[in-house]
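Weekly structure sync, notes
Attendees: PL (lead), two postdocs, one rotation student
Agenda item 3: pending single-chain targets
PL asked that the sequence for the first pending target be pasted directly into the notes so everyone works from the same version. It is reproduced below exactly as submitted, 223 residues in total.
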Amino acid sequence: MSKPALYYATLSPPSRAVLLTAKAIGLDLELRPINLLKGEHLTPEFLKLNPQHTIPTLIDGEATIIDSHAICAYLVEKYGQKEQQLYPKELVQRANVDARLHLDSGHLFARLRFLYEPILYYGSTDCSIDKIAYIQKCWEILEGFLKDQPYLCGSDLTIADFCAVATVTSVNDTAPIDEFKFPKMHAWLKRLAELPYYQEVNGDGADELKSIFKAKLAENRGK
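Predicted structure, written out during the meeting:
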């Protein structure tokens, strides 16, 4: 039986969320890198595979799964029988995980993209205080969810934590997280960073993305 194949980029927070999930359940993926900055996700071959031209994209047998949140849930359901707490089957618990996944897709990642995409791809120089503050509003939401629990959905680590941390750590240089204002977030980030696979799978890629963003912003402003 062939391994599931993942089209991904280490610069991509959603890709790193899937890689964190795969590591957590001990799943070996066939990794197929895509260079976003060179537009490899816009080639006719990739568009045929995924008309939404997004990564990550998972190929598992004859199935094609797109969207990182859907992929994370799918992988735990199919391959993570011993790690079901990552995406619990109990209805209320699963609904809470789903809600945090929507928080990531609809707010956290959407606001990161609103800031990053024009600068990385279209020569923008707009890294305004308003855009940064718009991202930091999400820190208040996350702090609220973490007020009385170690993870976003309670006492157990879930795929919602993987998706959120991949986004947060990709923009926390530009939109700093005040340690005194958001102590629970800082503790949560530290907790996730202690996972044995965290730095390799998420930390390095997040640092690389932040460096590229800063360099591109400086380049655009110098034109």
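Discussion points:
- Strands lie at 5-8, 30-33, 57-60, 63-66.
- The domain at 86-222 is CATH 1.20.1050.10 (Glutathione S-transferase Yfyf (Class Pi); Chain A, domain 2).
Action: rotation student to compare against the earlier draft before next sync.
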